[in-house]
Amino acid sequence: MHVICAAVASQLVVLNGTLNQAMSAWNYQ
């Protein structure tokens, strides 16, 4: 169960980073 939580947490971090990058790119246009 703990492994699943860790995997979900890491996925959220990656998703958050991607979203942040996308928003930054959008703001530059």
From TrEMBL:
Taxonomy, superkingdom: Bacteria
Name under which the protein is recorded: Uncharacterized protein
Species name: Lacipirellula limnantheis
